[in-house]
Amino acid sequence: MAGKTNHQYHILAPDIMPLMGALTALVMTSGLVMFMHDMPVGKFVFPLGFAGVLFTMWQWWSKVITEAHQGHHTPVVQLHLRYGMILFIASEVMFFVGWFWAFFDFSLFPSALSEVVAGQWPPKAIEAVMNAFDLPLLNTLILLCSGTTVTWAHHSLIHGDRDGLKKGLWATILLGLLFSGIQAYEYAGAPFAFGQNTYGSAFYMATGFHGFHVIIGTIFLIVCLKRAYNGDFTPKHHFGFEAAAWYWHFVDVVWLFLFIAVYVWGGWGHPVH
Question: Model pTM?
Answer without folding.
Answer: 0.89
